[in-house]
Amino acid sequence: MTDVATAVPSTVPESEKPSTDPTPTIAPAAPIPTSLSPASVGPDPKVLAQEQQTGKKLGLFTEALPESKPDPETPLNPDQEAKYAGILAWAQALGPIPVSSEKATTTREIDDEEKMWLTRECFLRYLRATKWNTVDVKKRLEATLIWRREYGVLDHTPEYIEIENQTGKQYVLGFDRNGRPCLYLNPAKQNTEKSPRQIQHLVFMVERVIDLMGPGQDTLALLVDFASSTTSSNPNIAQGRQVLSILQGHYPERLGRSLVTNLPWFVYGFFKIINPFIDPLTRAKLKFNEVMTLHVPAAQLDKKFGGECDFEYNHSIWWPEFIRITKERRALYTARWRELGSKIGASEFELKGGSVQDPIAEASEAVEKLEVK
Prior knowledge:
Elements: H1 4-7, H2 45-54, H3 78-92, E1 97-98, E2 107-108, H4 112-117, H5 120-129, H6 134-151, H7 158-161, E3 170-175, E4 181-185, H8 196-212, E5 220-225, H9 237-250, E6 255-261, H10 265-274, H11 280-283, E7 286-288, H12 315-339, H13 348-351, H14 359-372
Parallel strand pairs: 4-5, 5-6, 6-7
Antiparallel strand pairs: 1-2, 3-4
InterPro entries: CRAL-TRIO_dom, CRAL-TRIO_dom_sf, CRAL/TRIO_N_dom, CRAL/TRIO_N_dom_sf, PI_Transfer_CRAL-TRIO
Pfam families: CRAL_TRIO, CRAL_TRIO_N
Protein name: CRAL-TRIO domain-containing protein
C-alpha cells in the first residue's frame, strides 16, 4: 500500500486533514453568525477517510493554503465612486426586461436570483471591463441578464450535465497562490460528440467554481493540459468562438490567470485563428508552458501538472462531493443575502462570510473601551 504520509501532502489546510485524535477538543466560545459562512462547508469525512486509506486525493480542497491570499482591493477614486453609485441606482430602478434576445419577446420583472447576481462586485467587474463607460455597463448588464434567462444557466441540472464529466475532463482541485480556485481542463478525455451540452458543461463548471471562491476573491485560475489530445478531442473554431463570446461577454473579469501546457502544433494554429477574438486583457492572462508551481502551490497542484498532490479522478466520489459542496455553499450564500435585506448591490465579500468591519476602526474602538474603564 502507498505510504500515506508521503502520498498526501502535509501542508493541506488544517480543516481538511482527517482527525487522528479520538477525543474531541472543545473550541473556545465564539460569536455565532446569523447564518453559517459558505466557507464552513468542508469535505465529507468519509471521503477524507478514503483518501487516508488510499493515499490519493479523491475530493476537493475547499480552502486555500493560509499563505495564498487574494490581492487587496484597489480603492475607488471619486470619479469611480460616482460611476459605481450611478450604476447601482440604475440597477435598483430596473424594470421588466425581455426573457430572450428575440424581437417582440415578452418581459418580466427581475427575480431574487437575478437581484442576488447584481452585487457590488458584479457592477465593478463590468465597470472595469468597459473602462468605466457607464452607458456600456448598462447595456452589457441587461444583455447578460437576458442571456442567463435565454441560455438557461440555472436550468442545467447536475443530472443533465453529469455525462459530460464522466471521464474527468474538467475538475476543480486546489487554489492558486492568490486564492483562486483552479479549474482543470483535459481535452484528451473528451467523451461525447460535439453538441451544445459541451459548452453548457463549461458554463455549469464556471458557475460552480464561483461558488467555491472565498471572500475577497472573484476570479478563477484555468489550467489546461493538451497532452495526448487530438484534433477531434479539441473544440473546433465555431465552439472556440462561442466559448469566448460567452466568457468575455457574460463573465467579464472572472479569469485571473490561464495556464496552458503541452500545446501541440495543431492547437497553436487554433489559438492563432481565434486570437483576434480574444480581449487584450484576457490575452495578457494566458501563460504557455510555464512551471505550474510558480502559480499554484505544489501541495494543492495535481501531480500530473507538476505538483505534489496525487489526485485521482474517481467520478463516483468526486462528482457527488463537488455537487454537494457547491450546492450547500450556494444555499448559505443565498441565506446570507436574504438576512442582509435581499438587496441589489450586496457585497459578495460579506455574502461569502468576510467581515466588513474595518480592522483599524475595530482596534481603535477596543482601545477607547479600555480607556473608558
